[in-house]
User: Fold UDENN domain-containing protein from Mucochytrium quahogii.
Amino acid sequence: GFISSGNSSKQYICLISRAPVIQFMENVLLELASLCNQDLCPVVALEPFVRCIIAEVPCPPTDRCMKIFWERKHIFQRWIRVCFPRMRRLPLTEDRGIQLLFTRFTPEVVVNIVEHILAEDSIILYAQEVSNLAPLAEALRAIVFPFVWQGVYLPYLPKSEWR
Assistant:
């Protein structure tokens, strides 16, 4: 996500998690960006917010959900719901990925993509908005469950590899 810092330099923050919480991470980045747009970035350091997400948000055990209230000096307040599914159960998929998948592609195209995934063909997704790629890819991985993609999974292909 892009965060404007008020001065001429730009700051970028990327949140990476093993947990299937893309929507939560996106909300956090939007909240941090809104803090910077309110000119609070010079006053409030961004690192404690990111550190809080990485170090202080506990992960629930398998097959459990938990709700956490996260607050930072009355500037940032959110309820966070984090869940992990049982092993060999349907993977957790956020609604946004499935909605993107079926609003961007017709059902016939989705079936065609799934056929190629199951046949272990190479799949390349292209999006004008890079933020749509990970939710789309995760939705496709969830749809082919219980099968698992055995090839290399690159959510973002570096520009140097475009051919």
Remarks:
- Residues 87-162 form a domain with the Rossmann fold fold (CATH 3.40.50.11500).
- The longest helix spans residues 22-37.
